[in-house]
Amino acid sequence: MLQPSKDRLDYGSLLMPPEGYYLENAIATSYSINLDALISIPVALYFSHSLELDLKQDIVQVLDSIRRASDTIKVFCQKGQISVPDNQHRLYSFIEPCIVQVPPSHRHSFHPKVWVIKYKNNLGDIKFRVIVLSRNLTFDRSWDVAFQLDGNFIEERQRNYGNTKPLIDFIKYLGTYEEADWFEDFISDLGKTNFQLNSNEFESFTFEPSGFPGYKKNVLFNNQFYDDMLIISPFLTNSGLDIAKKYSINKAKLFSREYELNKINQQYLGDFSVYHLVNEFVEGEEKIESDTDENISAQLQDLHAKVYSCKLGWDAVLLLGSANCSERAMHRNVEFMIQLKGKNSKIGPDALFKELVNEDLNVFQLYTPSEPLSEQQEELNSQEEVLQNLKVDIVNSIITANANKQEDSNFSIEFVCDLANLTLNAKVEATAYLLNNKEQSQELKLGDKTQWTVYNIAEIDLSCFLIIELRIKGTMVALRFVLKIQINNLPESRSSRIFKDIISNTANFFKYIRFLLAENYWDEEHTFNGINGKPYKGHGLGDYMAREEPIYENMLKAISREPEKLTEIKTVMDKLSEEGNGEESIIPEDFKTLWRIFEEIKLKDK
Q1: Mean model confidence pLDDT for the chain
Q2: Which domain of life is it from (predicted)?
Q3: Is-contact 299 142, C-beta < 8 A?
């Protein structure tokens, strides 16, 4: 169940639709988001492909999947926890509608990690999938856990299944921040979905969200005393360990990160048998990969799973999900766990311990207390805490922005960032700049209001992502994060203009059409680089069709077998046909004439 050498978490595989089904809608939560990871997610949901993508090499699939995703996927994350991308890409603009930010406070965080996905097939049958994870929506290679639960929608069901109520209440809570027009049907169908366990290790399950109205209880222990306990938690606090030890009659086993264990007062660790990953695994994956997949490159990693195995007589309770062993997670954060019940011999503390600590895969070792943190490290931690606290204040401040079209058809944006309620800290400097526009960065006045304007931004470079950089003056201690902000008066044509800029020419247009008509999307050429690597110089449909696959025949097949593909082509053509400053049309007149014939055939078939 928890064998690191075999049970690898493949995020993309967890999201892929069941055979014969396609994505209808999805709701996800994550504490933090990597934008490159987010734009890879729709590829798994729509085209059943892994998240290991290259934006340049797989641009066709990525572009089409995120074009569809903006209306069908909502991802909720903690505000201020979008990481700054290494490379800035216009594709990020397409996923802006997917992201919903939940403001934190100094006392609590928005920390759940769960996917709820609705799939459908051509017969109208509906399936749901719930994935409870410890992993954020990032490319982090740390050791995480996930639990997948599938269910079938029962249309004739008159009342909701009782075990879906906590999940439905959680989604309704998310809807208080932002809803989509499909939320109501999504929730209604979810209530009539029969989720069943497909493993003989578990006898029953319960969804355990916490941290919002009606769900404030301590989901980890819930005032239940256990015979024994095993805890896996990467982040710890003294108060969290003090609470946990009270619920285990015997000395509990604790697995965490060595660096985090060094921060804990040693008196709180004395009640546990404490383990951490050996250093060679933290620094790379060479040993664990040698017997599995030699093509996976070694990367820095550590423990990130959150698991609680609790023995109660012959039985056991297993909790996994987002909650660390901290007082904050137990009583204040918004978290999501799943509780699984079964026999102690299968899911109890001793059973898990044997999987984690054994001679065949010696990856954990007993913790040895280290020397107290040096004054330099203590000062560094203190400085980082200053920036983290300032970050919370900034993400909860008011930032307004208004776009204005210039005479040359570029845009200017007027910003106002009101930090008047913040305490002035002369040691900290803060700057802000728009994604794709770092050269026009602006210093923010802490304890005051800052107004500034950026100029000459092309429509395709407009972005709702604002990057904030905080730094302790005279040091290398810095913090960067992305905020999604509301910009008033953005042109409605922005996404179409970006789409057209990426397609860029007639050859790429035909490549996209061929991709949409393909029987297997992933068998098609992925890149926009001209025909056979050379720029396309033809001007008409006949010239193109003489050199490429017969688009005409494939469109005829689509009319009779998959008319929804023609609907997708229509959507693409509409985007590319919108007014665009007098530019020559990417779509050849020959193809427009052909398309009108197909539209007439479609109308006759209705």
Answers
A1: 85
A2: Bacteria
A3: no
